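Structure in, sequence out. Go:
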């Protein structure tokens, strides 16, 4: 895990060292080609943060939310 974390950090450092226009182009291509993965990761992180802060839905709220999705 430490090696993955270090590799991820190094890739990020490479990204921030790029000119702003290249960063923008990279982000645009990343969004186009990895949209689902990025969306899933953002959703996971938001859920984890809500859980850690005790801000998640109770059973009744969750059922109401789920039923609203099918409408």
């Amino acid at each position: 895990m430490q090696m993955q974390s270090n590799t991820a950090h190094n890739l990020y450092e490479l990204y921030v060292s790029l000119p702003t226009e290249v960063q923008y182009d990279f982000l645009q291509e990343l969004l186009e080609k990895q949209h689902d993965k990025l969306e899933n990761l953002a959703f996971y992180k938001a859920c984890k943060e809500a859980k850690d802060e005790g801000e998640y839905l109770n059973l009744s709220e969750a059922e109401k939310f789920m039923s609203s999705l099918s409408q």
